[in-house]
Structure formats: structure tokens, C-alpha cells
Amino acid sequence: MKKPRKLRSQKVGLAPGALIHVGERRTARPDIALFEYDVGALRETRFDSIAASREHPRGPGTLWLNVHGLHEPEVMAEIGHRFGLHPLVLEDILNTDQRPKVDDYGDYLYIVARFFDYDTATGTVGSDQVSIVLGADFVLTFQERPTGTFDPLRERLRGDKGQIRKLGADYLAYSLLDTIVDRYFTVLEQLTERTEALEDVLLQQATPAALKEIHAIKRETMVMRRAVWPLREVINGLTRADQRFFKAETQPYLRDIYDHTVHVIESLEGIRDLIAGMLDIYLSSISNRVNMEVRILTVITTLFMPAALIAGIFGMNFRHMPLIADNEGFLIALSLMGAIALAMVTVFWRRRWLG
Asked: pTM of the predicted model, to two decimals?
């Protein structure tokens, strides 16, 4: 089943920064959740309309605004106005097939990453874009649908676990990226198990269904690789950048994420090697099966060749032929054919040409 395409043709001819949603509508309406916290307090608010958000006063401390559902441009326009976001940032958020990247807009960073999940029912890998805007004291995140990816992070905020409420917005942004990358390992484990199980099946019997499965895994691995490679460069750039957004105490955590992305890439390369090996196994198995069938047909043809020769000789229209007038001639010819065939079968069997 092919995934629906995200068509960019609907943006042709529009001005840069035009707010057109390129993607799937995965929620009935946008869901906006706001966390405001510091060391001593946490306030959590949900908005069901833009008007309600306008009446909400800004609290002290760090602000985390998360949006599920990107199909209403007026919501994005309001958020962009409240936080002073560049029109190109809003355009990139609504274009949900962006390549992972980081853009510096002076007062804030715009980071794009991709979230992956594995559907055990269909055996497919799903992908969603996560847009992160990091400012001095706020973090904005945008997703097409609620995936539950950041639920553990929300529980840590509510329970005041770890350092997340003690440190600032940069640590929150790190925690979001770390959660996304950690999810890659779960998907990789499931892909690896699926690949190894398929390899065991191929060693027993190569079927067209197995070949289809090989190409499906190869395609999903390629999609993940295209997302993780640029994300590694994004994290590497953040670790080498100045400390305007990520403080010195947060830099070691970013380097830890970088190590994780390298590990993910190495694991993906390992899966690619397994897939290449399985393709070789499949082709070798098919070639061996064809050779076996050709050998069987060759043996059968060879066994009948002496009989055809004898039948051809006795079928010649000469007046005087050996055994033509003999009453036992027919049985003698059949016996000769059978004896030659039996002798040939014995030779083939001794030379192990029959299996």
C-alpha cells in the first residue's frame, strides 16, 4: 500500500512564506498545550481556541507550547505573531516533508527532526515531522498528530523529576531531541528482529513474498537513513555553535545525542548489509533452483535419447531389418531400451547427478 504523497504543487506561484499546509490532516482540530514552569512551580494549560489563548497571561520561567495538528493556518499565524516568528519558519512548519535542519534567526533557533514509530500490526515504519523553535526562555513544538512521544517528558515535568525544571529552555530542547533519538533505537530493534527472522525464512525457502519483504525493509531503512544522517549534522552543529542558545552545562548532553545518532547510523548500515546479504541469498537460491530443474529435465531427456535412437532405427523402411520378422523382436527392443536407461540411471546416481 502506497503512502499518500505530500504535494507541493499547491504552493506553486504563491509568495514566500505563504501558509499552506503540505501534509495529511490527522486531527479533527488543532490541540494546543502550554507548560509554564520554574524550579518551584508548574502551570499546565490547554486551549481549544485562539481567543482563549489571547486571554492567557504569560507566566514567569520557561514556556513550552506544543501544537498537534497543522491544517489550520490561522492558528500558525497567531502563534507566529505572538512569538515573532519569521514567515519562512511558519512555512517550513506547515511543509511536513522537510529535511532535518537547524536555522539561526538571531533571537531563536528553528530545528527540524523526524519521529519514527513501528506499527507491529502492519510491519511498517511511520514517520512524522517535529518542528522545534528554541528561544531564550521558550520552546515551541509542532506535530501533525499526537503520538505520545513526549508523554514521558511531560510526566517528568509534572513530577519534578531530574533536572528539567531546574534548567532552562535549552535543556528542554535537548530533552525533546533526546526523546526523538531514543525512539530510533526501539524502531531499529524491531527492524533488526524482522530482518533476522526473514533471513531464517530465506535460508529455508526463497519465495516472491520474501523478496517483497526484503524490498519493504530496504525502503524503510533508506527512509530512516535519510532522516538520521542530516540530524547527526544538526546535532554536531549545535555542539560546535556558540552558547547563545545551549549553555555550557547543556553541551555535554548534546554530545551524548550525537553519539547516539552515530550509533543509529551504524545500526542502519548493519541492517543494510543484512539486506544485501539476503538479496544474494535469494538470487543464489533462485539460481540453484533453476539449475536443479534444468538438470532434472536434462537427465530425463538424456534417458529417452537411446530409446528414441532405437525406435528411429527400427522405424526405417528397409525390406530387410534385424528382428523385424522375429516374434520376440518388439520385446527385445523394449528390453534393450530399458537396459540402456537403467544403466544410465545407475551411472548418474553413482556420480550424484540425480540430486
From this structure: 0.76
